Each structure stands twice: as C-alpha cells, then as structure tokens.
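User: Structure please.
Assistant: Input sequence and predicted structure:
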Amino acid sequence: MTPERSAPAVATRARVLKRCGLALGSVIGTFGFSPRQLLHALQGTPRFIHGLVTYRSRARHAVHPMPIGALYPILTDYRETAGVAEGHYFHQDLWAARRICAAQPEQHLDVGSRVDGFVSHVLCFMPVSVVDVRPLVTDVEGLSFVQCDATTMAEWPDSSLQSLSSLHAVEHFGLGRYGDPIDPDGPFKAMAAFSRVLRPGGRLYFSVPIGRERVEYNAHRIFDPLTILDTFERHGLRLVAFSAVDDLGHFVADASPNDFRDSDYSCGLFELTKGPPTAD
C-alpha cells in the first residue's frame, strides 16, 4: 500500500507541476505558438462567422457596408474584461508615482521600469531620466535617456541623486534576457550602485518579485524580502515604507516583509532612504 502524502508534500508537488507547466508554455510561446490562444480562437470562430453574416445582411445600405475581402478577425477579445486594475505592474506603478508626486523632488532618475507604464505616469507632473541597457528612441517632452550598465551606475558620482526608482527590473539583471552580460551577482551589484549614488535623505523606490527565493532562468529571480533589506542595509540604506502585491494580484498597503517570505510570486514595494532616522 502506498503511504499517504503529507499536505506540505502535496502542495510542493503541485507547485512544481505548475512551475513546469508554466515553463513549458513559455518555451512553446517563445517559438510563436500558444495552445491556449489557439483554443480560444477556435472557440471564437463560430461567433465571428455569425457576426459577419449578420453585419453583412444589415449593412447593405449603411455608411460602412461590408465588402467580403475586408476581414480582420479578432477572435478572443470578447472574452476579456474592460481592462486590468490589478497585478504587479498596475499597483507598483501607481504606488511609486503617487509617492514621487507627493515628495516633489527636483529631479528623478529611473532604471529599467516600464516606459509605457510607470515612467509615463511620472511624466504627467515632472521630467524623468531613464536608464536602460537597451536603446530607446524618443522625442517625448520631458523624457531623457541614458543607455548604460545599471550594475555600476558609473555615469553618476556618489551621493548625487535625490530621487531614484527601479521597478520590476533588477530581477532580470545578469540573466542575459535583455542582452546584458551573464552575471549571477548582477542584482546585488545594482543594489550597491543604487545605494552609492543616492544622496543622504534621498529616496529609492524599488520593486522586485518576492517569495521563496530562487532563479527561473532566464526570465527572472524571486527574492526573499529579507535578502533585499539586508543587502540595502549593508550599503547604508534603511526602509521607510513597505507594501506588496500578493500572489493573487491584490495590493497590500503597509505590509510586513516577513509575511511574504513564503509567497510564490508576489511583488515587494520598498521605499528606502540613505542615512539614520530623523528625529520627530
């Protein structure tokens, strides 16, 4: 008789199977094929054909009649919601942009965050300089760009930046995903560089995936939140505030880092500063 598995063993096995399934789906998707997208497209085809026939029959004398060759099938959008108001990027971009807006720094520098998300939020109220290892061509007013290695931040002297951010970027450093050199210590070099260039009293707005610590090559890393705090503390930074986005994509304000050490794939939102606590 096979012994019954314990609940933790079953949960671990389920996580492994889920991770393997996600990895397989990612590999297949890399080569341009999505089984899920194909299934949904097939399911949506009868609906599309019915709609096409109905439109043609009703649009014979309309402003926009329907020539049979003018087809542009979109087979899955009807399944979607009106938008996305949850998840790592939605919440982290709002969290950081609101804090920067409240702080009103004279200048702000961002490393690797989404230009069409967080950076565009901040551009609504102040100029932003963006750093990335990849090129960026832009003529957007208020947006400047520096292509360089953010693991050194060699273009900036010590204690020179008042306001700095890096959202959902450092977990990729050193994995080669974005054309950067392979370096297992890439994230920790970047955290040391951010600490070096931040001026005393300045603010760093920082986010990475948090939970059970691991690397999933070459997509990203997941960090124990205490690893992040210990690393920055060694370089003279201290935590001002911490929030998180949990495994379900829900925002948790004023959270405890310890509560997320066993998460699967949450997002830690760290506001840090350089220097000792100020007196009240």
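Residues 35-79 form one domain.
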